[in-house]
Amino acid sequence: MKLKLLLIFTLFQNITYSQPKDTLYGNVKSIREQLLFLDENVQNRKLFGSDGDFGHSGFISEDFTKSRFKTWWYETYWVHYINYYKEFDIDHKLLKDVWYYKDQSILSSCENKYDSTGNNISQRLNGYKSSNTVHKFDNNNNLIYSRNSDSDKNYSTIKKEFNEKNQITREEHFNSEYPKEKRSTAYVYDGSGNLIEEKNFNRQGADYGNKFEYDLKNRKTKIILHSPFIWVKTKTGNSQKRTKNGVDQIRVAFKYDEYDRIIETKKYNSNFNDGNKAELYTTEVTVYENDLVKNIYLYDNKDSLTHYKKYEYDGLKRKTKECNVSPNYPEHTIALEYLYAETEFPIQLLYTNKGIVTQVDFEYVVDHKNNWIEQTKSINGKPLYVWKRELKYFE
Fold first, then answer.
1. pTM for the complete prediction?
2. pLDDT tens digit sequence for 219-228
3. What HEC string does the chain produce?
């Protein structure tokens, strides 16, 4: 049951509407942000009891962790985990970034140094392995060279070349642990400056790459996978064969409305019986009303509706209702209903699943800059979680 709930919530990840904008006012010098648990027996949700502090997938990246945390905080009655410290200079360039486990031991840390023009010239990383990265820039402030050396005295380099429009044209990767596995990418543009091809190469020659198509308004309409191999039949089944031209297969196709918003996305996979052909996998349709997303529909390759979402908003364009429906599994329908005060932050969420309503209440504390510094999340009247951040400013 938990898995099915999670699957429903991970659909349509390219659009989220319930998360308020986390604006920071003033010139922030440092941020210390973490989740506190008011009941030691109620922690962040995990798939298995043996999962670590950051759940089953662990700490994948800062962006992923923050995105999932905010989604679960505002859209569910459970939570993910967050715990970090950031320090900035007066121009808001990141100097230090430290992520922590629940016991406050360090998961990973990063320290940056900059030159007089504001370019990041070195970065020191510490985690399960320490490393130091040195950057070089050209006269147009394009990053043209990076060298990363780790604690085992291995190193890797990235070299980049740019054209007169400051568009990257070539990228080369080297790793001292695998000196024969040098990889490179060539970037090709059309007359309008649109990236139309990414050509990847390894020591065997051409590797998998991507091609892109655009309409007359320079909107990307197709993403095409290029393979240097084709599938051929053998006595025992099928195998891949490298050829001069390879094969191209569409992967994604986009349609837009008159306001340049994507209203249809078609995704394709290789055909199971003929790997040289692509077949439609799923179609996502987005319907807008008054500049807001009203409905999202997901169809399978037979054009059967598999999932959809419905949204409602108030006069201030704040989302007030959301309904997640799987027609084949109506018992897993999830409905969200929000209540607000004078801000964009919700003060209450009614989470309904299988006819059971869970009430989630939010309380906020703000500082003298009108930035929130504490959010308390209560479930059915019981305060369980405090999302806390300490802000220091350049006054």
1. 0.86
2. 999 999 999 9
3. CHHHHHHHHHCCCCCCCCCCCCCCCCCEEEEEEEEEECCCCCCCCCCCCCCECCECCCCCCHHHHHHHHHHHHHHCCCCCCCEEEEEECCCCCEEEEEEECCCCCEEEEEEEEECCCCCEEEEEEECCCCEEEEEEECCCCCEEEEEEEECCCCEEEEEEEECCCCCEEEEEEEECCCCCCCEEEEEEECCCCCEEEEEEEECCEECCEEEEEECCCCCEEEEEEEEEEEEEEECCEEEEEEEEEEEEEEEEEEEECCCCCEEEEEEEEECCCCCCCEEEEEEEEEEEECCEEEEEEEEECCCCEEEEEEEEECCCCCEEEEEEECCCCHHHCEEEEEEECCCCCEEEEEEEECCEEEEEEEEEEECCCCCEEEEEEEECCEEEEEEEEEEEECC
